[in-house]
Amino acid sequence: MKPVAAHSRAARAPLATLAGRLVGPEALPRGPGQAMIAGRDWDRPRLGRTVRGVATRRATATEGSTTKEGEYNGPEPKRFAIAEGNRVAVLTAAVTTIMRFGSGALTKGYKASIDKTPEGFSGYAFVSGNGRQVNESSKVAEFPRPNQPLEIYEFEGCPFCRKAREAVSILDLDVLFYPCPKGGTTYRPKAVELGGKAQFPYLVDPNTGVSMYESDDIIKYLFDTYGDGEVPFLLSPSFLTAVSCGLAMLPRAGKGTTFAGGKAAVKPIVYWGYEGSPFCKIVRETLVELEIPHLQKSCARGSPKRQELYKYMGLFQVPFIEDPNTGVSMFESAEIIKYLRETYGAQA
Ligand SMILES: N[C@@H](CCC(=O)N[C@@H](CS)C(=O)NCC(=O)O)C(=O)O
């Protein structure tokens, strides 16, 4: 693993620089379009074809380039498989989604249908077989889309932050998360500097110049600006929302709350995931504990971005990360957590 900058304020890229890097689509941290996969035992021919197409389309987006064209050296993706040693974590993370009645697992206006598989179909479908497939769709493509990712200062073990994250997944918004765990040395002070107080979540929308505290206000703003103006019942300011968000914190027992980092990730990691996924949640907790800034490519069920990831990587599975600081890209939650700890943890 290549060394990364030491975890000190001086060694970290100033936020202005990070933000500067994120302005304009060609300057975005690299998507998986640059994480090229060579044929692997698990899917050799299809992955090869996918990769060449992507390389041509995204030839200019080379900043932070990670995996070389034609290579994917990460662990073999195993959809819905729970790694040994991860069982309790994944199951308790699943309980948090159940306690929130699945909020954050589906995009707005989600629909599923069983259709005939088109001749020569090559794309993402949740399930397929016997000439049929389950297709999923939603209304998010009809909603206004921000040009630049939103920025949110927050942490996992906070019920108000959870509500904001669910909204982001439901609206399929890409967000640059600046983790603010307790004791965090970088983004917590930065949020105070920007907004005036240590209260989370704190939203900054570079598209409109709006910034705000208060999860209910943030949610309303997001649905008004990037949705159809209707806040879902499970996110409306109500007793049920408050109680279920609070209770949903219990199964993970404070994970994703306290700073445990060692080295700074200078450039934000690109992270594909969504709030309702237990595999994603445990990775996000680690990203937050290690104070690793990350650009979330939200892709809850019904998200059109599932096709995007499928095109880039030849399959859809989340979590998927790409780290422009080291050139590493990988599927598999357990391996991702191990990688993050080894690279950015206190012992790194
Ligand atoms: N073994 C993988 C399992 C990941 C997984 O199956 N994630 C689900 C989301 S919860 C997924 O990608 N499902 C594919 C789909 O929904 O089509 C890991 O631990 O990361």
Automatic annotation (TrEMBL):
PROSITE patterns, per database record: GLUTAREDOXIN_1, GLUTAREDOXIN_2, GST_NTER
Domain GST N-terminal: 267-348
GO cellular component, one term: chloroplast
Pfam families (UniProt xref): GST_N_3
Family matches, as CDD domains: GST_N_2GST_N (cd03041)
InterPro entries the record matches: GLR_AS (IPR011767), Glutathione_S-Trfase (IPR040079), Glutathione_S-Trfase_N (IPR004045), Thioredoxin-like_sf (IPR036249)
Natural source organism: Ostreobium quekettii
Protein name: GST N-terminal domain-containing protein
